[in-house]
Amino acid sequence: MNMHEEKDALYRCIEEGAKEIKRLSAQKGEPFTFCVVTFGCQMNARDSEKLKGVLLSMGCVETESEDADICVYNTCTVRENANNKVYGRLGLLKKYKEKNPLMKIALCGCMMQEEEVVRTLKESYPFVDLIFGTHNLYRFPALLLPVLRDDEKVTELWDKAEGSVEDLPIRRTYSFKSGVNIMFGCNNFCSYCIVPYVRGRERSREPEEILTEIKALAKDGVKEIMLLGQNVNSYGRGVKSACTFPELLSEAAKVEGIERVRFMTSHPKDLSDELIEAMANSPKVCRHLHLPLQSGSDRLLELMNRHYTKAQYLSLVERLRERIPDIALTTDLIVGFPGETEEDFSETLDVVKRVVFDNAFTFQYSPRRKTPAEKLPGRLSEEVMRDRFDRLLALVKEGAAAQAKKKEGQTEEVLVESINRQDETLLTGRLSNNTLVHFKGEPALIGQVVSVRLDKSMGFYYLGEMV
User: Fold this and answer.
1) How far apart are CA 93 and CA 71, in angstroms?
2) CATH code, 426
3) Which DSSP category does 319 fall into?
4) Is the residue at 293 inside a domain?
5) Rounded CA gap, 348 and 329, in Å?
């Protein structure tokens, strides 16, 4: 079956699913509800929007409560505690299902691509109705239908991708901004990372298909897009129309109606001068780059299979800031990689001091099954990891506060995203450099780009006033 036929078949499943939802709603005596819970990265968040779109098209009503008639967990498995979190919450779902026999529980995402996980679910959590993975997520309508119609238990997992249907119904979290998948999978095989094993090898979408999606989003009122991939710098391998990521980025920025373009994630090993130029030459490309460092130690970077050195990373940062002086740099940092010495750790601290990141996501090393790093000797104690983590975090915060202070008093363009959760008299928006800003304003401004004076820097966010 080709992708066009597959798409038609999936839409027929949505129609049949709608009939079943109508039947179940009548049996229940009120509308059938659903809740989709997302764990993990922006790509998972984008996938969850597709899951929600399918369920809404079937006539379900969305709720934030996991005590819903259909509860879907879209899982992450980057760290072991992500798995444990899902297992812990499944106990609560079991109690909900005991009270509501009509309830359906579905699990999907990266965690489901692990054989041990699926075995554990079937042995210890038999009340789960549907299990599927990353490669066949688009088949959700077809997989859910027998669960709804016949109360079947369904498991479908693929070892590799066999195509994808991208233009199924979707429920965007925001009407004015959206993620756009440009590629799937990863070929980097960092020694600590399980992503290539659960997301598969790199597969790029055709540029024409991506740009068509962006144009459709623009017509639907979207002002900001984020191009998504595990390593966007690798985009273009295997596509029929020769296209590099810098070329795609430039074309995306030309789409009428799109005011901001972001992307994530960019691997330091193949971030080209061409990409730096594409960012510098387009005012629509946001002045923010997430550039994972992981470690400042050349010895550990080699063990991590990162394919760059400390000096190369620092040189890249120098070129970025020379060409784009106002760029905000964020990063990922791992503390306690097997065998990490105090000297290795001091090299990481040195990079943090020299770069002065605008923010950093810091993690204590968590071994993942079937990754090369799991077998490395020299596991650090929790006490040592915690001490280093605290020291690193303090330095990151100090640098981020210094970076944020530079913009204090300036007036910047802010895309208004929501009403502030802590204070309903405030709005929350985001600068081009991805920093949050809180300021007084009317809810009608949500989705608009407004000018805000950044009155006070609070480290990782600003308090401001609209001008």
Assistant:
1) 8
2) 2.40.50
3) H
4) no
5) 16
Give the pLDDT band of residue 13 (cuts 50, 70, 90).
Answer: very high
Element (H, E) at 293: none
State the pLDDT at residue 159: 84
Helices (H) and strands (E) in the chain, counts: 13, 19
DSSP for residue 377: S
CA 81 centroid distance within chain: 17
**CA proximity to 143, closest of 62, 56, 66, 55:** 55
Shared domain check, 152 and 7: yes
Which helix (H) or strand (E) segment is 18 a member of? helix 3-28
Domain boundary among 90, 122, 156: 156
Q: Which residues pair with 428 in a beta bridge?
A: 418, 438
176: pLDDT strictly greater than 70? yes
Q: How many domains does the chain have?
A: 4
Instruction: State the DSSP H helix or E strand holding residue 50, giving kind and residue range, or none if neither.
Output: helix 42-57
Please say whether the beta carbons of 246 and 275 come within 8 A.
Answer: yes
Q: What are phi and psi of 188, to 5 degrees?
A: -80, -35
Q: What is the pLDDT of residue 1?
A: 62
In sequence order, which residues have a C-beta less than 8 Å from that of residue 315 and are 6 or more positions away? none
Hey, what are 28's tokens? 């229940």
What is the token pair recorded at 338? 């097997």
Show Cβ contacts of residue 337 under 8 Å, excluding neighbours closer than 6 positions. 192, 295, 300, 303, 304, 344, 365, 373
Q: How far apart are the first and last CA of the chain?
A: 56
